[in-house]
Fold this protein.
Amino acid sequence: MDLCKICDHGLETIISFGEMPISNRFVSDLTTDEFFYDLSLGFCPKCLMVQLENCVDPDMMFNPDYAYFSSISRAMEGHFKEMADEIIVSVSDRPRPFVVELGTNDGIMLKHIAERGVPHLGVEPSANVGASAREKGVNILVEFFNSKCASEIMDSHGQADIICGANVMCHIENINSVFDGVRILLKPEGEFFFEDPYLSNIIQKTSFDQIYDEHVYYFSGLAVSGLAKRHGLELVNMVPQEVHGGSMRYYLKKGSGNPVTNNVDFFLSQEKALNLDSLEGYASFKERVDKICSDFRNVLLKIKADGKRVAAYGATSKSTTLLIYSKVGPGLIDYVSDTTPTKIGKYTPGTHIPVKSYEHFLGDSPPYTVLLAWNHKAEILEKEQEYRKGGGKFITFFPEVTIE
């Protein structure tokens, strides 16, 4: 039995997806063997954390060739600008505030902090995206954040008023050390907040493509509250975010007895009503996943049988789980369109669908396009009005397969 990475209790399996490759390792040479691991999701009945049962070495995922740059999305640019504005307001009355961001990526958020002259530090393990952030004037430490790293930052910079992270905490297997690091680095009156895909949304939408190697944890307020208490922190607020198909931002402070918003009680009550505090809440998840995959494959088979071409939009990490578990490869999807230079000309992990440029997609105008980047659906549909007016249709798959 696999053990919980938080509390060492035995895990109960929710679903196993079988053998999967590194989700963001796009293939340039089809003759080279890929690394595969077993992708299984488990639930801890003791600390209530939903998590991967087996983890990939982080150096295999977050390396100098990491292929995700946050700034490619206009919607994410706006989201992170708002986050930066919130931070600037919250520290505006402090004489010399210090802001630390965990997982800075290409500086999409922290550049706004830097532009305002606020002392800051971004901790980013991937050297290439870190270099991109540095070019934007962001102070970067290329490192994995943990208690040792936190102590070194404190010794050189002092404690932080704000520690934050977006779509990063769920990536870190040794999260106990991260929370210890937050406790060390955070000022007594400071605030720590992070946001990640929300477990409740994943379960209700059956958005199982969120489950892949980089996402070790699937947070609920119940699990975050317990994790915070283990490390001398307290969950004081929860604020839903529209990004990434439904995320939650968690606010934590040091100690206990802090003012807690009504949001916390509201969302914890909702989670209990969904039985996310027991295996019962996940009982039908696999059945719903299997139906979506079967329907998705059958729709593609019918389109191809009719002699129509099918492309896909967005060479996303999360689509690796969807494509492999649905048994969908280059025989059903002709190519994937993407704007990321490091992905174009390569092949999708495991399924080996060619990745082509966005310009190729515009010139080709395929009759059907699978919207793999479904979490940016509103932005993409607005951008592709001409494609749709010309008869092009998008295929989506959560909470059910739809052609629109």
The radius of gyration is 21 Å. The mean pLDDT is 95. The chain has two domains: 70-282, 285-403.
